[in-house]
Specification:
The complex is a heterodimer of chains A (about 200) and B (about 70).
Chain A: H1 2-20, H2 23-38, H3 41-61, H4 78-89, H5 97-115, H6 135-152, H7 167-175, H8 178-203
Helix pairs in contact in A: 1-3, 2-3, 4-8, 5-8
Chain B: H1 2-31, H2 39-46, H3 50-69
Classes of the chains: A mainly alpha (about 200), B mainly alpha (about 70).
């Protein structure tokens, strides 16, 4: 019994150290700070919830890293399967509870699909980094900085600045048209499908 | 007024430059995969870490919901 207890304690220490070094936690803390500044309670709760999920899940993964390269993602059925919900959701008014609910259902389905298989087996070592991988996160960070500048220049929380429009303000007129909203939803659902397949591939 | 539209133009230009960068990286990733990794490869590599999986899924969902519902 003392052996099991010391193993548990070692696991807990590994989890705490892993979380302290985890860039995902830092990203969520920064996002939460931005959401507090934006002043929209639902966003604050969503980011805080994601942070709590990562912390809760840390007890399961204990800083484990997947090494095996996952198999190819099957694409054949996905475009057709994603078209039905996209076409069903697109005609719903943008500020309606129905569209909120439909997005929440999609999110819950994906969350369960990602949560269920768990973090995968413990493996030693890390897979090699892809060439110039940092270029992609570099573009992402640059976009976040431009968005941060628009947030700082807002005259009031949730009121866009005319001088510094956010990305959502710029593409708003496009998404107001239901065909482009259907196309956007279709791409979004396909991306979700791809993510689920990748995560589940790592877990096996 | 001139200053106002110049700031807005600068912001929109920044978005356009970033969109062009994504396009260029996408083309480079498919034509020279040994020099520049595609977004799929980088994401697959990043997803080896469990917290990254959860954060990427959350960011994906939040972006879709935020843009489509205009919340």
């Amino acid at each position: 019994m003392p052996e099991a207890s010391s193993r548990r304690e070692a696991g807990a220490v590994r989890t705490r150290v892993g979380l302290a070094r985890e860039p995902a936690v830092l990203v969520l803390v920064l996002a939460l700070t931005a959401m507090v500044k934006r002043g929209y309670l639902l966003d604050e709760l969503l980011v805080a919830g994601a942070l709590m999920l990562v912390v809760a899940d840390a007890g399961r993964w204990r800083a484990a890293v997947a090494v095996a390269e996952p198999g190819p993602v099957a694409h054949r059925i996905a475009p057709l399967a994603a078209a039905f919900p996209a076409l069903a959701m697109a005609p719903l008014p943008r500020l309606s509870r129905g569209l909120d609910l439909a997005c929440a259902v999609v999110g819950l389905v994906v969350l369960v699909a990602v949560w269920w298989p768990g973090p995968g087996p413990d493996r030693d070592g890390e897979p090699p980094a892809p060439p110039r991988w940092w270029l992609w996160p570099g573009v992402g960070v640059a976009l976040c900085l431009v968005e941060l500048s628009t947030l700082v220049h807002q005259p009031a929380p949730r009121v866009d600045s005319v001088d510094h429009p956010s990305l959502s303000t710029v593409i708003e007129p496009v998404l107001d048209l239901w065909p482009s909203r259907a196309a956007g939803l279709w791409l979004w659902l396909l991306a979700g499908w791809w993510l689920v397949r990748r995560v589940r591939a790592w877990a096996t | 007024m001139g200053d106002v539209s110049a700031s807005a133009q600068l912001t929109v230009t920044a978005y356009a430059v970033l969109a062009a960068s994504v396009l260029l990286l996408g083309v480079a990733g498919s034509r020279r995969p040994t020099e520049v990794a595609s977004i799929g490869r980088v994401l697959t590599w990043a997803l080896r870490r469990r917290p990254t999986q959860l954060v990427v899924v959350f960011v994906w969902w939040w972006l879709g919901w935020h843009l489509v519902t205009a919340r």
